[in-house]
Amino acid sequence: MRVPFAVGMLILATAAGARADATLDFRLAGGDGAAEQTLRIAVARFFARVEASAAPDGWWLYEAGKFFPLYRVNEAERTWTRLTPEVTPRLGPVSRSARPAAATGGPAEDAADAAAAAAAEPGTPEADQSPASAAVDDTATAAAAAEASTPAADGGTAASAPEFALTGESDTVAGVRCRVVNELRDGAPVIEHCMAGKAALGITERELRTLARTFEMARERDFGWLATATADEAFISVRSRALDGGTRLTLVAVSTDPLPKGHLRVTRDYREVPATASASEASPPPPGAAEADDDAAVE
């Protein structure tokens, strides 16, 4: 009995080191003394809920899996709007235009994505979506991650994947150990990031990938957060600052407490409002901009 008991204790100890649910709070500041904003991202498995002080009337729900739907929820009006086009499921791999198919995971993950997306579609019955925790040893280093984002042998990088250069420096942000890298544009540093992996954040690989894809989505929609991830989705920004003295995003707290049931879904009694607003109208204002009613255009 000693061997199974020891194995069981090892599994419990490993699982205790990483949690499936995570909530990250950031402070977003613009240049020229602009007012600071707050940003909260709650993640569990394939789902991310984004709340921004610049848009206090509601929140965004993002499914970072196979079809990548993004919803805007208006709490005041009790409505929801799908901001991404409908996708017809088909056989074979499906990937976002900005990411190679391999980055979306294998067949098992794709199957889970499809089931999870169907369960989370607004208007579906409530279900307990508490994800199981899966701990994975974090053996990668920030140096390896930075190298993974440099040009490949075929002369290119993964589409939209930033290129990084190591600075050799480390830091601690909100108690999270991170490595400092510069994001390059045309070979010149433009943004400094301090990047951390799942072990430092205390979360699982699945939640880290969801965060990485949430940051990529935010860049595609010009949310102005600066944060990014490495091409292999193994490291994300916990602090980012524009080297021209402009925007700065900083992690202020990370929690792995379980999220409330139903926190990452839209309840059945909310009604759908068609997406008539542009992507920019459905995005939070840039740092320092005046707060506005994001959903006014669809009323």
Give the SSE order as H and E letters.
HEEEEEEHHEEEHHEEE
Q: What is the molecular shape?
A: globular
Structural class: alpha+beta
Placed side by side, the strands forming the largest sheet appear as 7-8-9-10-11-1-2-3-4-5-6-12
Query: What number is the mean pLDDT?
Result: 74
- Strand tally: 12
Largest sheet: 12 strands, mixed
Q: Which spans have pLDDT < 50 for at least 5 consecutive residues?
A: 1-16, 96-108, 124-159, 288-299
The fraction of residues assigned to DSSP E strands is: 25-35%
Q: Termini distance?
A: 65 Å
Radius of gyration: 19 Å
- Share of helix, binned: 10-25%
Number of helices: 5
Care to describe what's here?
The protein has 299 residues and is an alpha+beta fold. Helix content is 19%, strand content 28%. The chain has 5 helices and 12 strands. It has helices at 2-16, 107-120, 142-148, 198-201, 205-220, and strands at 22-29, 37-44, 47-52, 58-63, 70-74, 79-82, 163-173, 176-185, 188-196, 236-242, 248-255, 271-272. Strands 7-8-9-10-11-1-2-3-4-5-6-12 form a 12-stranded mixed β-sheet, sandwiched between helices. A hairpin with a 6-residue loop joins β4 (58-63) and β5 (70-74). The longest helix is centred in the C-terminal third of the chain and has 16 residues, at 205-220. It is globular. It starts with a helix and ends in a 27-residue tail after the last strand.
